[in-house]
Each structure stands twice: as C-alpha cells, then as structure tokens.
Amino acid sequence: MAGGFLPYHEPGIVNILILISFFFFLSLAEWISSKIIRAGIIGQIAVGIIYGTPLANILHADWQSTFLALGYIGLILIIFEGGLGARLDLLKKNFFLSMIGAATGVLFPIGLSYLLLYLGFGYGAVETFIVGASLSATSLGTTFAVISTASSTVDLAQTRVGSILVSAAVIDDVVGLVMLSVINDLGELGQGHSVNLGWLIGRPIVASVGMAIVTPLVTKYLFAPLFRRYIEYHFARFDHISNIILMILVLCAFISIAAYTGTSILFGAFLAGTFLTYIPSKHPDGPFVVMSREEGEREENKSPTFVHTFERYLLDVQKYLMEPLFFSSIGFAIPFVQLWTGKRIWRGIVFTLLMLFAKLIVGIWVPLWQILSGSNILSRKVAKEYPREEHYSDDSTKAVWSTVCLSGLLLGSAMVARGEIGLLIVEVGYNETSYVSEDAFITAVWAILLNTVLGPVTVGLLVKFRGKEIEEGAWGLQGTAPAGDGDSSIDPSLGNLEGSFKTHDDMCQTTRHSPAYSLNHSGSIWTKPSSPDGQLPVPAQPAIYLPDYRLLVSSFYLSDQGQVNSTGRFVVDKVQSQQA
C-alpha cells in the first residue's frame, strides 16, 4: 500500500555469511578459471549452478530472481560498453561479411539439427526447429565478455575479425529474438488462441531493421551536428558529470525504444553505445579528442570521452558485481541433475559436437574472403617483378595463410557460446508449448552448456598463444581512417603486410626524376622508387605507423606527367622489435 514502509530488520548471520560466501566464490572461481582455461565466466556459471536451484539451492528463490534482474542490467552494460568501444569504420566496412557470417551461424545449426534430431533421433519437426533455433543464437554477453577479457593481450574490439564478430553476434541476437517470438506464438496456437503470426514474426524484424537504418541517419544528420555546434563545448566545464547524465539518458531511451517497438533490448544497448561514439567532433581541437582520461579531466577546454567516463564510474560495478551476477544467473537456469543419465549424456555430447561445428564453420568465411578478395595475386605479381625478393613473397604467403586461418578459427570459436539467449529460447519452447519433450529439452541444454564452456575456452587459448599473430595481420588491428574524403586504407595481411592504397593528387608531390610519396594513415609511409640497378626502394622515414614493420617493396604507377597514379601497391615485411 502506498504510504507504508518496510520494517527494518537486521539480517540474520546465516544469510549474511551465505551472501559473503557467494560473492567470494564468484570472484575466486572467475580467477581460477581465468588462470587455468582463460575463460573466467565458466567459474561464475559453475558457482551459479552450485548455489542456485539446480544443486544446493543455498540462495533463496527471491534472491535468485533479484540477482537475475541485476545480472541482466550487467548484460546491458556489457553490450553498451561494446558499442562505446566499437570501430564504426570497421563495422561499416565489414558489414556484408558480417551478414554472411551471421546467416551461416543461424542456418547451419537449424539444418544440422534436422539432420541429427529429426532423422537420427526421431524428434518431431516443430520440436527440432525449436531446439535448432535455441542453438542458432549467439550469446552477446559471452561474446563481449570474451572480447573484454582478451583486451589485456589483444584488443579484439579494434581488429577486423573482432568487428565482424561483434556485428555477426548482434545480428544473431536479433534473429534469436525473432525465433523466440515465433516459438511463443506456437505456444499460443497450441492453446487455441488467435494469433496474427505474420505480424508477430515480422514486428521484431521491421523494428530491428528500422532502428539499424534510422539510428545512423538521425545521428549523422540531426544529433551529431546539434551536439557538436551547441552542446559539446559546454561539457568541458563539468567533466564526467555531464557525460554520465547523457549516457544514462541515451541508454534508457534506446533500450525503451527497442523494447516497445519489439526488438531486442540488447540491440538497443549496442546502438546507444555506437550513438555516443559518433556524436562528438573528431577535429583535433574538439573537446572530446584527448590522449588520456587525465588530459580530459585536467585541461580546461577538454572533456573526458564517454569511454573514459564509463571506465571511471561504471566499469568496476559492471565487472566485479553485475557481470558475475549475470553469468551466475545462467547457472541458476541449468537443470543440472536431470542431465546425468546415460542416454541423455551420449545424445547431448553428440549434439554438442555437431553444434560446435555448426558455429565454427562461420570462420571459414575469413579464408574464403581472403581468396575472393584476390590478395594473393599481389604476392605473385611482386615475386614476378622482383625475382631477387621471391623468397619474401613465399614467406609472406605462408605467414598470411597461417594467420588468416587463425583469425577464422577465432571468429568461429567466439560464435560458439549460446548462453542466455539459447537457454531462454529452449525454456520457452519447453514450458510454453507442447512440442518440446523433456529428452529434447535436456539434449538442447547439454549442447548449450558445453558450447558456452568450449567457446570461451578456445578463444582464451587462441588469444594466449597466438593472439599477437592475429593482432598483427590483415584481420587484426586496423589503422584509423584519416579524416576527409581521401580513401587511404591499409589492409594488412597476417604475419606480413600486403594491400593497396588509393590517393588524391593533393596527398602527394612527385616528379618523374625526383619522386617521393607520402601515405597518411595513422602516420605515414615515405618511399623512393627503385634505383636503376634494381635495388629495393629505400624508406626515407619509418616506413609505416605500425610497430615492428618495415617497407620491403613498393610499386607505384607513374603517369606521363610524373604524377602518382590513383592506385599503388605495397608489401611490407615484419621486423621483430624495431622500426626501419
């Protein structure tokens, strides 16, 4: 009743000790699993299984419900942080490849589920669809948590393969929401209710596509100009306070719009992060262009970035409280005891392996894209034009394909975890419809649980032992695109660097007899042409603004007027621990 109050009682010592032990073991399990298998979230899920309803049921039911809600806020913050740190240029550049990867990650699990469950185990067609749909989703929370955990070794968010992973996982989440709507409607149809199936299936699709199209347009042509002209210079007076207020307002607005229009709240959280990433001015004199958080706090006319504000005020709460609660809440939802019968174990393991393959296959698009883009043609051309350097081309090709395959394996492995989305879909199918049997439900839970374990473990081991190779290649770290209309891009290959560039005449000054060329790309490449005796071009300054690389071969096409043609090619070879 409004106007009443909750009587204050001192909590009992048993409850206090239970809560202390729960949070202590969440931290301890995360640390142990991070050290052993490089996937701290696995320990948190295990603690949730032990303390929650599946095993010991130590936590009260209302506590578990509260932790689930707080954990979901943690999930929203994980996705929001991912949006804040997203490279918009890479997301845009690799969007088509991300769409292909996401489609592969949805269609293969459903198709292979029919192959095994429908034809092999004799499950029903609708039942198989529901189970396959639950395994077609990718856990956004796990994906972003893996990216965040790996950042101490490799900044995956700034890599090409990382941007593809983020886009594909977000698309999979939206598709998972559509699947969930379909399954909910199947339950209502089974109960004899009248349902507009077309609208309920189409609504989340229309809402998601609408938000994905409208958000960048409104941001670019309305909010960004208004913010840059009238607002951002006032932010410098208040440092983090103005930032945190705007961040909360934008996040709440986006997740509310997403919820009421029928798309995923998590998709809204990601768009909120990318919105805040785009609106500040990128001009060097802009208040949000700072080298460090300290500069933004210290300089009178500068402001900390939104990422800096998140790190100062929200990151610790998210990382040490809400994120552990989220992954432990996944453990609350796993029917652990029911898993352990002989038939369910072997069926679950077989289905797990099939579903592992169904997501790993997404990574095949990385080497396929490398082939289709024709990047190996350059190596053959350089070897032909510079026979004395043919061994460089051979070494480059081997290094390229080694790290391309590693990048593909990383992408596929990071898509493996199903987590909260998969559990939600299969539990709705089991509890709200009459189609899913207990055996099918347990088989799906086995696959979801083991894949949620195997995916992060594989990613952690890859990053630990081969992370630097991935980071330094074409699918690794990408230089920031220069401001302006010039299209100057470096597409580095793994191990060695190989690609093409495009320039405008105002970016270079050259004559036929005294040519020099400058490629501005987070630094510069200065080169001289080959001398008459066939020697390689000699870099006049550090060849490229990427550590541990030097220029080996540079081929420019000069017009009759002595101007650099609009397209040139280069190959640079890795040099350990030095710049040329």
UniProtKB/TrEMBL annotation:
Q: What's the main place this protein lives?
A: membrane
State the superkingdom: Eukaryota
Q: Where are the transmembrane segments?
A: 12-32, 39-59, 65-84, 96-117, 129-149, 161-183, 203-223, 244-272, 320-337, 349-372, 440-463
What are its GO biological-process terms?
proton transmembrane transport
MF-aspect GO terms: antiporter activity
Tell me which UniProt keywords the record has, alphabetically.
Antiport, Ion transport, Membrane, Transmembrane, Transmembrane helix, Transport
- Please list where the region (Disordered) is annotated: 476-495
Q: Which Pfam families match?
A: Na_H_Exchanger
The entry's cellular-component GO terms read: membrane
Membrane protein topology class: Multi-pass membrane protein
Q: Where in the cell is it found?
A: Membrane
Keyword Transmembrane part of the UniProt annotation:
yes
**Start and end of every Cation/H+ exchanger transmembrane domain?**
26-464
* Protein name (record): Sodium/hydrogen exchanger family-domain-containing protein
Source organism per UniProt: Aspergillus welwitschiae
Q: What is the lineage of its organism?
A: Eukaryota, Fungi, Dikarya, Ascomycota, Pezizomycotina
